[in-house]
Amino acid sequence: MAVIAVYPGTFDPITRGHEDILRRAARLFDQVVLGVAVAHHKKTLFSLEERMAMAREVLSDLPNLRVAPFEGLTRDFVRAQGGRVMVRGVRSVTDFDYETQLATLNRELMPEVDTVFLTPSPEVQAISSTLVREITQLGGPGDGERLVAPAVYAQLMAKRAQRQQG
Question: The whole model's pTM is what?
Answer without folding.
Answer: 0.93
